[in-house]
Specification:
Blueprint (H helix, E strand, L loop, with lengths): L15 E10 L2 E10 L4 E5 L6 H9 L6 E9 L2 E2 L10 E4 L11 H8 L7 H14 L15 H14 L4 E5 L7 H17 L4 E4 L3 H7 L3 E3 L2 H4 L1
Parallel strand pairs: 3-8, 3-9, 6-7, 7-8
Antiparallel strand pairs: 1-2, 1-4, 4-5
This protein binds adenosine-5'-triphosphate (ATP).
Adenosine-5'-triphosphate (ATP) binds next to helix 1.
InterPro entries: AAA+_ATPase, ABC_SmlMolc_Importer, ABC_transporter-like_ATP-bd, P-loop_NTPase
GO molecular function: ATP binding; ATP hydrolysis activity
Protein name: ATP-binding cassette domain-containing protein
């Protein structure tokens, strides 16, 4: 059990389990996977374009299009999430695009995500400032997100996810817009924070260097269908 930043009450993290998950589309089997991801472990999913990597993350996050046929279950710390709506799964999700809200300041983006049990403007502001400081963005609270570099945006997106007190992380190619040096720096930051927070993490990537840096198991999906 771990206490995550951004929440006053301890958030229970534990193993993330994909139990006999199969996903199909229009009568065609897309993927089948069973895996248990330990707290702080990063499981990397690789596979050809169209093999269903993002679809698997959508299933795990609870936002899979109903057009897909699904069987199997997803559990966190033994609790079945399969029927739990996306907004109550406490999944922290990072996409290729950091998707910062353009109408909010950098700090506003973080404050917006802080768990609701942190009360009071002052306390929320202090948490947001600390989150920015932690990733080398002290003093950036009032900045317009559009004025940030790609790497700075990626760090704000990461902290925005972490202050929301997630129980697990879903990473959909979050480094692929970054150049090589920044990519290496950012993935080290993301993986070290995932480990420190004890979050089970699923990483989808095309880049074997990402998988290597993640340091965990790698599952290749969809190879049979594509061969
Ligand atoms: N909402 C949807 N409705 C119908 N088909 C979809 C939908 N979303 C995705 N698909 C199809 O499902 C399959 C898997 O798509 P998915 O995006 O999961 O692949 P991927 O492995 O993440 O690909 P890439 O590496 O290119 O991102 C593809 O054939 C895609 O066209």
């Amino acid at each position: 059990m771990q206490e995550n930043a951004g929440s006053k009450s301890p958030i229970k993290t534990g193993c993330l389990t994909l139990s006999e998950v199969t996903i199909g589309l229009g009568g065609r089997a897309l993927l089948a996977i069973s895996a248990t991801i330990a707290p702080g472990e990063v499981l990397t999913i690789m596979g050809p374009s169209g093999s269903g990597k993002s679809t698997l993350l959508a299933f795990a996050g609870g936002f899979l299009d109903p057009a897909f046929d699904v069987s199997g279950r997803i559990l966190i710390d033994g609790k079945d999430l399969t029927a739990v709506p996306a907004n109550r799964r406490h999944a922290g999700i990072l996409f290729q695009d950091p998707l910062l809200f353009p109408h909010l300041s950098v700090g506003g983006n973080i404050v917006f995500a802080i768990a609701p049990d942190v009360k009071g403007r002052g306390a929320r502001r202090r948490l947001a400032d600390a989150a920015l400081d932690e990733v080398g963005l002290a003093g950036f609270f009032d900045r317009d997100p559009d004025t940030l570099s790609g790497g700075q945006k990626a760090r704000v997106a990461l902290q925005r996810v972490l202050v929301s007190a997630p129980r697990f992380l879903l990473l959909d190619e979050p480094f692929s817009n970054l150049d090589a040096a920044l990519r290496q720096q950012t993935r080290e930051l993301v993986f070290s924070k995932a480990r420190a927070a004890g979050l089970p993490t699923i990483l989808v990537t095309h880049d074997s260097a990402d998988a290597e840096a993640a340091g965990g198991r790698v599952i290749e999906i969809g190879m049979e269908e594509q061969a």
